[in-house]
Amino acid sequence: MKHKDGKPITQPDKNRIVPMAIIFVVLCGFSFYMGGIFCSEKSTFAFVNSHKSIESPEGSSIASLQIKSMSFPECSSDYQDYTPCTDPRRWRKYGFYRLTLLERHCPPIFERKECLVPPPDGYKPPIRWPKSRDECWYRNVPYDWINKQKSNQHWLKKEGQKFLFPGGGTMFPNGVGEYVDLMQDLIPEMKDGSIRTAIDTGCGVASWGGDLLDRGILTVSLAPRDNHEAQVQFALERGIPAILGVISTQRLSFPSNSFDMAHCSRCLIPWTEFGGVYLLEIHRILRPGGFWVLSGPPINYERRWRGWNTTIEEQRSDYEKLQELLTSLCFKMYNKKDDIAVWQKSPDNNCYDKLARDTYPPKCDDSLEPDSAWYTPLRACIVVPDPKFKKSGLTSISKWPDRLHATPERISMFHGENASSFKRDASKWKKHVAHYKKLIPDLGTNKLRNVMDMNTVYGGLAAALTNDPVWVMNVVSSYAIDTLPVVYDRGLIGTFHDWCEPFSTYPRTYDLLHLDRLFTAESHRCEMKYVLLEMDRILRPTGYAIIRESNYFVDVIAAVAKAMRWECRKEKAVNDNEMEKILICQKKLWYSSNKSSR
């Protein structure tokens, strides 16, 4: 056959069509088979019969996930204090420079554990608050190193089956109460509600933060997992807020201008080294007008230098460098007596406006987001507070407890949010918490102490629980809208976190975990199985999880929880919202039968 122009038309080769078709079918079949294997290996969850529906009581049809049967083995007993992202087993992969090995280094997905972390042999339900502040069961935190090394400083002592906490510390061997009394004399704002939130860098066993609780000050006690074995675990076992962390090469996981006070009691952080980046980070997270308290080298070097294995000339030089750096950051000496020195961050921007362009450290440029704090590298520059927020400084913000209910100025950062929406949110959470207390009678009693709101917005749950004997770690997703500044402006505490990774804490450190549609928000990024296994790791035996979730996820969560040896029940949401359910789960207490490595 030819075209009109006389050129021949090329016919398809029929002999080639059949083999090519066969090859195409074989490849499609092979891809389908491999995809099935990959999916079954990637996750225990299977989107099977996704067209199938569940009939609600009202007769509405709601799509659901189906799940294959599963079970999780026990981890070996040497994983009883497993902290995946700060695991000493992996330290050799990272350098000692600036102690980067102590920062978060999470294992890749193919190295993550799919087993249940066991409690130590002889583990008991923790002693209840407030008695727990002074004692804990030895078998719950069975570590002797810190007891032997710090016994002369009265950090803790072992008596019988318990660790006792006398309230001593390196700089306050006579007791933390006397130490804080002196501090209050130097900083009157600690007495009148002006200071509400604090951070303790290098916290020991958190005796300073524990003492401040009775004085109306809520402290985040921060320490790395290092040779001071289990500092943070001791703190949380006592019922005192704490988190694993270290000032090294990355920003701390807190927003800017948040803490009213920062404290270092011989924490041995080299404040003036590496361009002053560590002190610059303290400056970033301190609220305008906030206080930085330092005790230990080089404070009071004239009397103390002989006990520091140094010379008076070296200590004088260190003190002068520190004072020079603080002045360049617009801090002013506020008060000083004996071993305690207090500086105050500039309450306004007048000092920063006067800084010359060629001064060091320079002001950060606009490309560096002040609140970016999730794996954000430290930079040797000054984060200048946003001048449009004139009521967020310590001298302007409401005093505690009025601060809890006053509309935070920084809520204006979010489109459409204002005083009315803030009050509606607060009212909503009062209703939710009242409902939760009916579902879990232990909530609101001293049977539950350490609480985590895993995906808060404005800290509504924590605010509604303020009058109860609990404290709440408010977690804001590093991928969500950054509402954590508002949480701090209310006088509450919290941290950024990505739930695709393990949290910075020890196992068995929380009595109650609360989730509000976390899987609806994050299941496209985070594998549900690993999030739930992480919840099991950090939840104490006999502790609870309150899971508010859409009907689409509830059955899957309940099935995984059963595989983790949890007992769960479904409850109706407030106002009988048919689109969501509340899953109330309780973790069982069990002991390891597995001594082999896994």
UniProtKB/TrEMBL annotation:
Keywords: Glycoprotein, Membrane, Methyltransferase, Signal-anchor, Transferase, Transmembrane, Transmembrane helix. It comes from the Eukaryota. The chain crosses the membrane at residues 20-38. Its main location: membrane. It is found in: Endomembrane system; Membrane. Belongs to the methyltransferase superfamily. It comes from Lupinus albus (White lupine). GO terms for biological process: methylation. Its EC number is 2.1.1.-. This is Methyltransferase. GO terms for cellular component: endosome; membrane; trans-Golgi network. Pfam families: Methyltransf_29. It is a single-pass type II membrane protein. GO terms for molecular function: methyltransferase activity.
